[in-house]
Amino acid sequence: MVLLAIHVAARDGDLVALRRELAKGASPNAPTRHHGLKPLHLLCGWQRGKSAFSTRSSEGKSADNLEERLACFHALVGAGADIHANDNHNAPRCRHPGWHAQWRPLHFAVVMCRVSLVAALIEAGANVNAACAPGAKSGSGLPLALAVGFGASARRRECIALLLRAGAAVNRPDLSLDKAWMNPSLYPILLRAGATFLRAPAHPDPYLAKILKAGGFRGNGFQNYERARRHAINAIFIPKFAHVLPPELVRRVVEFYWLHAPYY
C-alpha cells in the first residue's frame, strides 16, 4: 500500500507530522492509491505496521497514544476531513476484494476499541447505522455488529454503549442477540437496549435460561429477571449496612453496580 506523508502521519498518530503536512497543503481527504483509504481511516484503524484486522484481538491494549490520536482527529476534521468517507477496499486492484469494502472511520475505530475516537466521531455526526458494501466478507458492516462480534473487553463495552446511546439499531436481521453468543457478557447491555433473539437459543447458558424462566426475551422476561435480582441483592445488603447507610442509599449503590456489571 503506497502511502503519502499525510497517510503515514495519520496512521502513526503523529500530530507534529500531521500538522506539518496539512500546513504544506496536503489534502485531509487524500486517498491511498489502491485501497482508497483516507487519513481518517488510517488514524482510526491502523497503527505503525498493523491494520484493524491484524490487531483485532488487541482490544486497544497496544502502546497507542490515544490522546495524540484524538488531537490528530480534531486537526484533520478542522482541515476539512470527511467523517463519512468510505474506503475503496473493494476496488479491482485490491488484494482482498470485499474484505471491508466501503468502511467509514467509525467502523475502524470500533474494531480497534478506540473509545475516544468513537465518541468524537459520533459527536461530529457519524452515522452509527452506516453499513458497508453489500456482499463484503466482514458481514453486515454495521458498527454495532462489528463491536459485538469482535470481543467483550471493557473498552469494547464502552464502544457499544456509545453506539447504543447514539441510536444504533439492535434488532435488524443482520444484528440481534444471536451475534453475541461468543461474548455472553454483552447480553445484559444489549437486552437493556431492547435486543432479542431471532431464534430462541437451543442450549441457552445459565444466565439466558433464567431470563427464559422469568418470561422470555420478547416480553417482560428480562425486566422481571432484573427486578427480582435487584430485590434479592437489596434484601442481602440493606440489613448488613443498616447501621451506616440508609436503605435508599444502599439501593442506589446496588442500582449503580447492576447497571455496570457486565454479566450476572
Description:
With about 260 residues, this protein is mainly alpha-helical. It has helices at about 5-10, 15-25, 40-45, 65-80, 105-110, 115-125, 145-150, 155-165, 185-190, 205-215, 220-240, 245-260. The chain is elongated, with a radius of gyration of 21 Å. The relative contact order is 0.08.
Brief description of this entry?
With 264 residues, this protein is mainly alpha-helical.
SSE layout:
Elements lengths: L4 H8 L2 H9 L15 H7 L20 H13 L26 H7 L3 H9 L19 H7 L4 H12 L21 H6 L13 H9 L6 H20 L6 H14 L4
Helix pairs in contact: 1-2, 1-3, 2-4, 3-4, 3-5, 5-6, 5-7, 6-8, 7-8, 10-11, 11-12
How many strands?
0
Radius of gyration: 21 Å
- Cα distance spanning the termini: 45 Å
Strand content: under 5%
Q: What is the helix content? A: 40-55%
The total count of helices amounts to 12
Which class of secondary structure composition applies to the elements?
A: mainly alpha
One letter per element, helices H and strands E, the order comes to HHHHHHHHHHHH
| Uncertain stretches of 5 or more adjacent residues | 55-63, 90-99, 135-139
Shape designation: elongated
Mean pLDDT: 81
- Main sheet specs: none
Protein name: Ankyrin repeat protein
Pfam family, one: Ank
Keywords: ANK repeat, Repeat
